Amino acid sequence: MRNWAKDSFTNWVEGRKEGRVIYAGGDDFLGIFYKIPEITINEEYQVDKLALTATECLERFYKFSEVWNSHGHAVTNSHKDGVTVSVGFVWAYPGVPQRDVLQHCKEAEKSAKSQGRDRLAIRILFNSGNHLEWSCPWAYLKKIFTGYCDRSGGQNWTHIYNDVAVLESRHAFDDQGAIAQALWEIYFPALAHNLNPEEQLNFDNPQFLWNQEDTDTKLRKSSGILGDEESPSQHFNKWFINLAKVGFHLYV
Q: Residue 179's pLDDT is what?
């Protein structure tokens, strides 16, 4: 595992000179994503050419499951005693002090673990010091962000963000999650209404909602968006509202 972390993980982060592993030891690691453009001597320096977008970072995380599975000890249907990985990702605005970013990285990692493990916790950190956070198991990360569809058939996250903001201001989200579920079906129709019932990502699929364990070994079979079923702090309303807000800021 340590050789894998040193080689495969480092290559994943630093593969295209868009990141660097700062620390990797034991069961912890710290890395950063950045962009190094090819600038000639006579080329004018432009800050926007250096800017790394949040969606570019997400695309790297879409590939993380494949990289993680390469060590041969991941949780799969045929290998249920595998090792899970929990990651905290912080997308910070330019005015945030570096020490604050590092502290939020640590907190986001802990949050990913406390919300069920085997997932990515995304934290948007504003200049004011406030933050938004949303977490998702690796298996659903790409499906959710690429499966979003606004009312015009595009991927403008302003639509869902505005709807959620209005409904939240009116305290319209009920304890049963019916409003959130209805919005989920509207904005993620291909996921909620998949032709294969086992692959439908909605309230009818407990595997989508909750972590699943083998009844005999008590080991993890798969991870759900709300973590452990007995966890009272995790519910669909909070998860969905934070998805709308984080998605809006990532794709702005």
A: 95
